[in-house]
Amino acid sequence: MHIPDGFLTPPVWVTLDAAAVPAISYLARRARTEIEDSRIPLLGVMGAFVFAAQMINFPVGLGTSGHLVGGALLACLLGPAPAAMVMTAILAIQALVFQDGGILALGANVLNMAVFGVFVGYLPYRYFAARHRRAAIFAGAFLSVSVSASMALSELLLSGVRMGTGIILVSLALFAASAIIEGLITVAAIEAIERLHPSWVRSNESTGTPAFAAVGVAAILLASFGVVFASASPDGIWKLAEQTGIASRAASLVETPFSGYSLQGISNSWMAKAGAGVAGVLLIFGVTLALGRLSRRRHVVGAERKGA
Amino acid sequence: MHHVVVERWSRRESPIHRRDARAKLVAALAMIVAIATTPATHGISAAAYSVVLLVAVFVARLPLGALVWRAALVLPFTAVFALASWLSGDPLRASALVWRSYLSAFTALLLISTTPLIELLRALEWMRVPGFVILIAQFLYRYLFVISEQAQHMRVAARCRAGEGHRLTFGGAAAALSVLFLRSYARADGIQRAMLARGFSGHFPTTIPTRFTYNDACFGALAAAICMGIRFAQ
Fold it and tell me: Helix (H, G, I), strand (E, B), or coil: what is residue A259?
């Protein structure tokens, strides 16, 4: 789901673009350390492959067919950071050459599909593939598409695009259907690739702590779907916040440093919605970064122990 | 497979084609930002942006009808949300969604139709987009048509073997995808070896030095001023 320009309101796209810049430069640095310079052509060709693979129609019954989206597949084949780079390049080419997705909305699309889409697509594979291989690949692809789509939907809702509850439910059902199709295609594709050449799919010998991954996935799912439901209800995310008791705490948190100033602007419900949503996105981003750092440190420590 | 038509348009000759990619990028961004921030009630501004874009098409000597048609690719997606907005009693937003997304897509199309992608990516690198992403995008675009052609050859071959009415099964499609992957991977290997043999070190050498002239600066400033003028005119 590529968001075109003209859908997101300035506070939403400015924030998402601003969040996408450090995310991409961090991932670019990581990918650079994982991939030798001379292997860069491979990443470009893999991007072209995903483009071309979308021309292959998979029959899914009822006379309809689906096609690959590719985030989770790339993550399993290349690893998360290079996969995120390839997806970013795909989105940039789609926006610039094919007008598929907007230029100002590129930050939003990159965060939805290349950063979070690839990240949640990879987590289950990373931690569960050793025991439940098929289920892990399926879950990754399913999560990748459903998280990307629900993030896009919540960004649209935060921008004030009005949709009735019925329409939102229908689109969530459609997302779920396409996420299932993506899961089936990704499992079939990875198994077919492994039959041809087993060494091409990234091995996952390090299993890490699955609980960690489960918490991460749950947090991202809750946040992305939570914003959809919160925005759909009349009072928006504030209602959710009040119900959970976050609002009072958040208000005191916000007001303490600014107590001398009046925060009347925030009482405007639209601004509050947008602000809360964006804060949520940034929070998830921070949490995922921290999770990534922590798990890497843990691995380094584990490796040192093994070495000693 | 026919190559993207903008590739041919972008190599034509006109006062706009001659401008530096950075100036055109700034101009297009100014236009898209102005469109995105114009209030939904200012339908008259939308008309003014359209006039500016039409003048640009005329100066760039591009086929107007083909551009109008291609930019309309954004409309099916927009129509769904515009309809949803309309049904929930917000016709103003519905119309704003349509003109904002259409004019933005038209601006982006005009940018790529007057600037070869390689130059545009170089301009993006100048704007501090990570070089790694730019490099991948360059390779992606170079091999996009090669790999797509391969996919189409495979489709034709499958049709030759199985007959016109035959449809792939799910497993068959997965097998086709894996073969496409194998061929892409083998091609990437070949490309990599050939490039290493020619001394590739992770960067494309620039053959044509880009110069940002006085005219380029004037063009960028004028375009930005016009966009902002329309944006803030009441």
Answer: coil
Give me the interface pTM, i.e. the ipTM: 0.92
B6 contacts chain A (CB < 8 A): yes
Give the residue ranges of chain A where pLDDT is below 70. 38, 61-64, 200-215, 223-308
Q: How far is B208 from chain A (nearest CA, A)?
A: 22
Q: What is the 3-state secondary structure (H, E, C) of chain B?
A: CCCCHHHHHCCCCCHHHHCCHHHHHHHHHHHHHHHHHCCCCCHHHHHHHHHHHHHHHHHCCCCHHHHHHHHHHHHHHHHHHHHHHHHCCCHHHHHHHHHHHHHHHHHHHHHHHHCCHHHHHHHHHHCCCCHHHHHHHHHHHHHHHHHHHHHHHHHHHHHHHHCCCCCCCHHHHHHHHHHHHHHHHHHHHHHHHHHHHCCCCCCCCCCCCCCCCHHHHHHHHHHHHHHHHHHHCC
Is B151–A56 a contact, with Cβ atoms under 8 angstroms apart?
A: yes
Does the distance separating the beta carbons of B170 and A92 come in below 8 Å?
no
State how far the Cα of B205 lies from the Cα of B191, in Å rounded to an integer.
17
Is the Cβ pair B101, A59 closer than 8 Å? no
* Dihedral angle of Cα A257, A258, A264, A266, to the nearest 10 degrees: -40
B178 to A164: CB separation less than 8 angstroms, yes or no: no
Provide the number of CB pairs (under 8 Å) joining chain A to chain B.
250
Structure tokens belonging to residue B20:
């530096």
Q: Which residue of B has its CA nearest to A103?
A: B108
Question: What's residue A82's pLDDT?
Answer: 92
pLDDT value of position A88: 94
Residue at token pair 């506070």: A11
Query: Which residues on chain B are in Cβ contact (under 8 Å) with A156?
Result: 81
Is residue A144 within 8 A of residue A117, CB to CB? The reply is yes
Task: Check residue A124 and give its pLDDT.
Answer: 86
Is A167 touching B (CB cutoff 8 A)? yes
